[in-house]
Design brief:
By secondary structure, the protein is of the alpha+beta class. Helix content is 28%, strand content 26%. It has one domain. The chain has 3 helices and 6 strands, in the order H-E-H-E-E-H-E-E-E. It has a 4-stranded antiparallel beta sheet, covered by helices on one side. A hairpin with a 5-residue loop joins strand 2 (59-67) and strand 3 (73-78). It is elongated, with a radius of gyration of 14 Å. 14% of the residues are buried.
Amino acid sequence: MNFKQIFIVPVIFISMLGFRPLFQEDSYDQPPVFKGNTKEAFPKYIFSKIDKSKYKVTRTYFFELKADEKGKIVDAGLKNGEDNDLAKEIIIIIKKMPKWSPAQKDGKRVKSTFIVPLSFK
């Protein structure tokens, strides 16, 4: 087992306990926040835009999002697993979603990269 495996496994396990964006090496004084900063806001938004009955999936996806200084999602991609039709649909929804409150560092808005889990049960 190498260092990356030792570090990544606990981070992924913690994220599955509840919605909380995971942040990469960049650190922020204020992380990006989606609509009201509740743990249900992001999944609720995504699930309102897709027909979950169309997909027979029980798993957790991890999406990497990149936001600009204004909170607009400028890029999104699947961080784990197969890039199937459901993942592609979610990425399209993420790229069109409303702005997030942007991350801040030293009192200034900054670009951010973060990972969000989305669980289907």
